[in-house]
TrEMBL record:
Name of the protein: SLC26A/SulP transporter domain-containing protein
GO biological process terms on file: transmembrane transport
PANTHER family found in the cross-reference section: SULFATE TRANSPORTER
Any one Gene Ontology cellular component term annotated for this protein: membrane
């Protein structure tokens, strides 16, 4: 069966350009994927790799960045706050925060103490000489 050339026939997309068919829309939307060339990173020595890994392990967020460009007095204060964090948040600590911390501490204690005491009850009594290997059960 050949397509009709009647412009009023909705089955003929060629004769009626206002009629959109799902299959034709799908074909129009399909485009070739974009290709991006990925450049390999520059080669690094073993020492550079080790230094990078150690820095990421011990200083993942680079805490020393805050010291750059600061005067000596400010660097001392920042260093003291880094070693003793209470110097940073302590001046802003309030009674309301203390009350919240008490509630949080009691909540954790109410969960942790029964767990510890139940695990202690399951531990067998051991001989004071660890090498003897003898165990006494209650």
């Amino acid at each position: 069966m050949e397509p009709s050339t009647d412009p009023n026939n909705s089955n003929n997309a060629v004769a009626n350009p206002n009629v959109h068919h799902h299959c034709m829309d799908m074909e129009a939307e399909i485009t070739a994927p974009e290709v991006h060339k990925v450049v390999a990173p520059p080669p690094r020595t073993t020492l550079q790799k080790l230094k990078s890994r150690l820095k990421e392990t011990f200083f993942p967020d680079d805490p020393l960045r805050q010291f750059e460009g600061q005067p000596r007095g400010k660097r001392f204060i920042l260093g003291a706050q880094y070693v003793f964090p209470i110097l940073q948040w302590g001046p802003h600590y309030s009674l309301q925060l203390f009350k919240s911390d008490i509630v949080a501490g009691l909540t954790i204690a109410s969960l942790a103490i029964p767990q510890v005491s139940s695990s202690i009850a399951c531990v067998p009594e051991t001989d004071p000489i660890p090498a003897s290997g003898s165990t006494k059960f209650r």
